[in-house]
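User: Batch of two.

Assistant: Item 1 of 2:
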Amino acid sequence: MSYDAPFAGIKVVDLSQGIAAPYAGMLLAQHGATVIKVELLDGGDWVRISAPKPGGNTALSVMGNLGKQSIGVDLKSPAGCAVLWRLLKGADVFMEGFRPGVIKRLGFDYTTVSERYPNILYLSMSGFGQTGPYAERPAMDPVLQAFTGFMAENRDLDGRPMNIASIPVDMITALYAFQALSAALYARRDEPRGRYIEASLLQGAAWLNTYAMLQRVIYDGDLPGARAHRGVYPTADGWILVIVSGRRGWGDFCRALEHPELGDDARFTSVVGRVANSATLAPILSEILSARSNAHWQARFSEYGVMHSVTNESLDMLHDPHVEATGLFSHLQQPGLAMTLPIPGIPGAPALQNGTRRATAPLAGADTETVLRAHGYAASEIADLRARGVVSASR
């Protein structure tokens, strides 16, 4: 065990699909755990074939599988189930992401697995949770954005609720699942048994939207001050986000705009006043900011300590001098893809090095033979399993 690999020696068997649970497993791998991804024989995890240009790896499959080993197993066959039981021997963590009820029909629910391996930590990930009237509803990130009010808090100029495309619900749910597993691994040192852990996109989305929800509870359904303190405004050559904060924030902002008179205008000197007069204030700010370039305003706001950022396109950030100077991204080659992919460093984990296990997302079933040999299967047994279609064929 070390700071670079605190989970070295931890074995994880990962049956999850999609991105939320797989990403949690990927984080375990990045911190040293051996994570065995068990995939379907017909193309593997569905995210591998969800992109217009499938090559065995997609954006989601790379994000969710860096550092893992992949084995293809037919879990609908008795022989495939026998393979999975062999993989579970000595495992510390078992992860599944099927709809409620599916894993029990396969014979690997928590009760059954923990009877044989009582020390195991078992994670179930689902959309709406394991119980309740919506438990069996199919759900993905955008569904929970809509359900929890997150989309309603992010409306366009016409008032239409907007879906945030960068899968925030999946990401936050994955992080909660990772922290729950990490805490459980720590606590298990003094516990005689493992435990069952449930995580759902519903839980993650609820926390993602908690700030807005609590604001509405506290202020009787309204969100006072939010749009008075921050805004995205057009400039002469793009858009810029500005946030006004602190006791001196409004005055500094007005001086940066070269309109100090706004700082003395009685309608705008207080938060309450800016909220009450936001319909008047917003057009004034838009007119001022639209007259000059992003570069001009960045220089002015930096000089006066005003929080701000140009609204970059996703790829613009890669070439920002600050991002380049900090070495935030590693450009990694991945199986099945012709280009290198920019992958940000994971906080607290060592830098990703091209060609290493931690920096590689395997193709579906790529490690079948390696995994089976590590679990005591002889070459003849592996050949037999492949010939019967129980595990992935040779690559």
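Item 2 of 2:
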Amino acid sequence: MPEDFAVTVGAGTLAPADGDALALPHRWTAEGVRATVSFTGAHLLHLAVAGCVLNDLYREAHARDLPLAGVAVTARGGFAPGTWASTGVTYEVRVDTTATDAEVALLLEVVDEVAEIPRAVRQGVPVSRPTAPARSG
């Protein structure tokens, strides 16, 4: 069974309580964002997806005047043995809000459409390296 490279990012009432969680400032929350993540390329890819979704949930909720006391996003996926091709990324969202179920459902739909990193990953992202090696001074 392929390894599951899961990460969780959270803010507000749903921020991870793990003392080892990475803490980062965040435009939309006074306490910042906390992430449980290992430092591997696979985890960092999933962190980018989860972090983007969390950020856009706050942005879009603010634009719609929906209160969010907390948000947690877990992104996960695997990679094919030998090639390290992604087998796909899935993400789950939990929200602590007084908004109605219909408002939350619409918010999740909008964020799934506008979140930049998931959109880029879905399209395929060309990655290149300059041909000349970089050398430090």
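The chain has one domain: 7-121.
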